UniProtKB/TrEMBL annotation:
Ranges that cross the membrane: 304-324
Cellular component annotations (GO), alphabetically ordered: plasma membrane
PROSITE patterns: LRR (PS51450)
InterPro entries found in the cross-reference section: Cys-rich_flank_reg_C, Leu-rich_rpt, Leu-rich_rpt_typical-subtyp, LRR_dom_sf, LRRNT, Wnt_signaling_inhibitor
Domain LRRNT, residue spans: 21-55
GO biological process, one term: dorsal/ventral axis specification
Protein's UniProt name: Trophoblast glycoprotein a
Signal peptide from the UniProt entry: 1-19
LRRCT domain ranges (all copies): 238-290
Alphabetical keyword list: Leucine-rich repeat, Membrane, Repeat, Signal, Transmembrane, Transmembrane helix
Length: 368
């Protein structure tokens, strides 16, 4: 009988202790080394997360800011998901205590302030960073660019920036991600690829630029794609405009079909008469651009030549008229010279009288 009391007492004591290891509102599984705090209206990262945790999911809450105090003591966490929490600010060194972190998901948040060293991880083991639908607006890309430069992300392999409404990418934004293999930029509003947009990504293997606002790739954009020798490209579902300016891109596609995964699905959206025409055939359909351009240049050159002839003729006529009237012109010049001399002598005489009082007195007497 005493043994039963001891057993019941032991069970009563041990059970609360085990349950207290899991924060209120979370579900913990020591066997799976996983903690889930999903849609519990949490306002901050809960304290008391077990040290055994390797997979931590805190999603669907009301957490506005995260900082370096939030994840202390969680050395074993390898996968951290903070999606859909309405996070608007990430402080510097927020994740620096997560020494084993390999995957970080911040998707579906409202990041307006990203501090320069927000993604610094001491072990530099972070491999996947998901920022899909995470930026508050397209201007947040400036903060992100600074953070990617200052944070220790040399080992990052995958970066997802899809669905952020991005209009442009700052030059060299990815230059410090030298190990990056996968870059997702789909479903944004990127209008053009400029020089040094993808600088430093020599080892990139996948680049998704589908569902953007690209009308064509100009020469500097094509050079950027050429600087990604290993990358497979997704360029579909963009509003390509098949006018003369797209010919270099169409020609590039014809010689780089193995590089573009969805090349067969790249079609013209404008003008209307070429809509749904494959870009692979567009170059042949609008080759007349070169001929039209050459005709325009020829017409312009002809106009310049004709204008030069007319001006030359007018100049010759002017010189001829001057030659015929050379004697009259010479006489007019001499008359003008004599007139000017007389006026000058008169002024000079008046000046001498005014400057000498005696001469002025003589002049007055003479007048009388």
């Amino acid at each position: 009988m005493p043994d039963l009391r001891i057993l019941f007492f032991a069970l009563f004591c041990v059970h609360p202790t085990r349950s207290s290891l899991c924060p209120l509102g979370c579900e913990c599984s020591e066997a799976a080394q996983t903690v889930k705090c999903v849609s519990k209206d949490l306002r901050s990262i809960p304290s008391g997360i077990p040290g055994y945790t390797r997979n931590l999911f805190i999603t669907g809450n009301q957490i506005r800011r995260i900082g370096p105090q939030a994840f202390k003591g969680l050395d074993n966490v390898t996968t951290l998901s903070l999606s859909n929490n309405r996070i608007c600010e990430v402080e510097s060194h927020t994740f620096s205590t997560l020494r084993s972190l390999r995957s970080l998901d911040l998707s579906s948040n409202q990041l307006a302030v990203i501090h320069p060293e927000a993604f610094t991880v001491q072990s530099r083991m972070l491999r996947e960073l998901n920022l899909s639908r995470a930026l508050y607006n397209h201007s947040s890309i400036t903060d992100l660019a600074t953070s990617l430069r200052w944070s220790s992300l040399e080992g990052l392999l995958g970066l997802d920036l899809s669905s952020n409404g991005l209009v442009y990418l700052p030059p060299r934004i990815f230059s410090h991600l030298s190990s990056l293999r996968r870059l997702q930029l789909a479903n944004n509003s990127i209008v053009s690829i400029y020089n040094e947009t993808f600088s430093g990504l020599e080892y990139l293997e996948e680049l998704d630029l589908s569902l953007n606002a690209l009308k064509t790739f100009r020469e500097e954009g094509l050079l950027e794609l050429e600087h990604l020798p290993r990358a497979k490209l997704n360029l579909g579902q963009n509003p390509y405009t098949c006018t003369c300016g797209i010919e270099p891109f169409a020609a590039w596609l014809n010689v780089s079909q193995g590089k573009v995964v969805d090349v067969e699905r790249l079609i013209c959206m404008f003008p209307v008469d070429l809509r749904n025409t494959s870009l692979l055939t567009a170059a042949r359909l609008i080759l007349g651009c070169h001929r039209a351009g050459e005709g325009d240049n020829l017409a312009l050159q002809t106009s310049y030549v004709f204008l030069g002839i007319v001006l030359g003729f007018v100049g010759l006529m002017f010189l001829f008229v001057l030659y015929l009237n050379r004697k009259g012109i010479k006489k007019r010049i001499y008359d003008l010279r004599d007139t000017c001399r007389e006026v000058w002598e008169g002024y000079h005489y008046r000046y001498e009288i005014d400057s000498d009082p005696r001469l002025a007195q003589v002049s007055t007497t003479a007048d009388v």
